[in-house]
Amino acid sequence: MARAPLLQLSDISLTFGGNPVFDDLSLVVQPGDRVALVGRNGSGKSTLMKVMAGLVEVDRGIRVVSPGVSVGYMEQDPDLSGFETLGDFAASALAEGEEYRVVMVAEGLKFNPETPVATASGGERRRAALAKLLAEAPELMLLDEPTNHLDIQAIEWLEAELLSTRTGFVLISHDRAFLRALTKATLWIDRGEVRRRESGFDGFEEWRETVWAEEDDARHKLDRKIKAEAKWAVEGISARRKRNQGRVRALAALREERGSQIRRQGTAALEMESGTTSGKRVIEARGIGKWFGDKTILEGFDLRVLRGDRVAFVGPNGVGKTTLLKMLTGEVAPDAGSVILGTNLEIAVFDQTRAQLAPDATLWENLTGDPLMAVSGASDQVMVRGTPKHVVAYLKDFLFDERQVRAPVRSLSGGEKARLLLAKLMARPSNLLILDEPTNDLDVETLDLLQDVLGEYDGTVLLVSHDRDFIDRIATATVAMEGNGRATAYPGGWSDYASQRPEALAAAAKAAKSAPVKDQPKPSKNTGLSFTERKRLDDLPPIIARLEAEIVKLEEFLAVPDLYSKDPVKFKKGTEALTERQIALQAAEAEWLALEERA
Question: Which of 11, 72, 157, 552 has fewest C-beta within 10 Å?
Answer without folding.
Answer: 552
